[in-house]
Specification:
The protein is α+β, with helices and mostly antiparallel strands. It folds into two domains: 4-225, H-NOX domain, CATH 3.90.1520; 230-335, Orthogonal Bundle (Arc Repressor Mutant, subunit A). Helix content is 51%, strand content 10%. It contains 16 helices and seven strands. The chain has helices spanning 13-19, 24-30, 47-61, 66-72, 82-86, 92-101, 136-154, 174-180, 209-225, 230-241, 249-256, 260-269, 274-290, 297-303, 309-320, 324-335, and strands spanning 4-6, 44-46, 110-117, 120-127, 162-164, 184-185, 192-196. A hairpin with a 2-residue loop joins strand 3 (110-117) and strand 4. The N and C termini lie far apart (49 Å). The model has no long low-confidence stretch (mean pLDDT 86). Pfam families: Arabinose_bd, HTH_18. Residues 232-330 form the HTH araC/xylS-type domain. Keywords: DNA-binding, Transcription, Transcription regulation. One of its GO terms (cellular component) is cytosol.
Length: 336
């Protein structure tokens, strides 16, 4: 199946796009992503869609440095639960090795490798989206994010020996040199960062030895439990695709990189069907949305993927035994 990434990969995407004068919502809808869903950072979305979105955004904004500008806005917390652990690691080496070893916990497209030779450490970064798509912006975002992590450990004045990209140089390299320093190289045979191996032994100024054990225990329990099933992935994609009006088993299968029969077969093995997951997800969202009086029923109908409010009302009545308006009134009565 095609790899997924956490919503946090697009952290600050909307703000950056607006600052560059492009419409982030329109671009997200073109690749099948829901702008509202970005608020939930731990939700998983299609890696291909994110990669295509970054390329479209760079073209629309006429900024070849779009991915790098987005990396500049990344925060340590965007890594998710793993950030709590690496923050308490004793030195840069153990933190970086942990980040590389558990990369699938925050980005399934990402493949990174740390090596040492002749006094230099090399962090190589590659992306495998599962199909042939341009990855220039996504690669620069990934390399830029790793650079930000290293600086958080080694200080704002730290500089790598070199930063390498396999793609050609942009027309204006100003942003690259401002972010990485003067040693930025293009048309190289790998993407990544080269720095002195001695930097790996630098103590982590953020580390608290008393918290380290607790952070490790928390992370290990989370890492074991985060064995995402096919049903989990389908639920996530249903929730993401519903507001776009394109939530079908064909679309879900396409996002997962398989055909619809494979999705049917794997869901059946788990005792589920696509229809049962669609209904359950809609019901869960409907309870939350209808209870909010600030949302109109017409708006809710669209967010749940119905073609018309009447279709939503019929489905709701069959599922909950009353109309959406009656259900909202009953929920509001106790509060009143």
């Amino acid at each position: 199946m095609k790899p997924l990434v956490r919503n946090a990969a697009l952290s600050s995407y909307v703000e950056l796009s607006q600052s560059l004068g492009i419409d982030p919502r329109a671009l997200m809808k073109r690749v099948g992503l829901d702008p509202v869903g970005l608020a939930v950072q731990d939700r998983w979305i299609s890696g291909v869609a994110v990669t295509e979105l970054l390329e479209l955004s760079a073209a629309a904004a006429a900024h070849e440095d779009f991915g790098l500008l987005l990396a500049e806005r990344r925060r340590f917390s965007n890594l998710g639960p793993i950030s709590l652990v690496i923050r308490e690691e004793p030195d840069t080496r153990s933190a970086l090795e942990l980040l590389v070893r558990h990369e699938s916990m925050y980005n399934e497209m990402l493949h990174s490798r740390l090596s040492e030779a002749s006094g230099l450490a090399t962090l190589k970064v590659s992306l495998e989206p599962g199909e042939a798509v341009a990855t220039r912006q996504a690669v620069e975002l990934a390399v830029g994010a790793f650079h930000q992590v290293l600086r958080s450990f080694l200080g704002a004045r730290w500089q790598p020996v070199s930063v390498c990209f396999t793609h050609s140089a942009p027309a204006d390299t100003g942003t690259h040199r401002r972010v990485f320093g003067t040693m930025v190289e293009f048309d190289r045979d790998f993407n990544g960062i080269v720095f002195y191996a001695s930097d790996l032994n630098a103590p982590n100024p953020m580390s608290d030895p008393q918290l380290r054990t607790y952070a490790r225990q928390y992370f290990e329990s989370l890492a074991v439990s985060r064995d995402t099933t096919v049903a989990d992935r389908v639920r996530e994609l249903i929730e993401v695709l519903l507001p776009t009006g394109r939530c079908s088993i064909e679309q879900v299968a396409s996002s997962l990189g398989v055909d619809r029969r494979t999705v049917h077969r794997q869901l059946a093995a788990a005792g589920e069907t696509f229809s049962s997951l669609l209904n359950a997800t809609r019901a869960q969202l409907a309870e939350q949305l209808v209870a909010n009086p600030r949302r109109s029923l017409t708006e809710i109908s669209g967010l749940l993927g119905f073609s018309a409010p009447s279709a939503f009302s019929r489905w709701f009545s069959e599922h909950f035994g009353c109309s959406p308006r009656q259900w909202r009134t009953r929920k509001a009565a106790p509060r009143a």
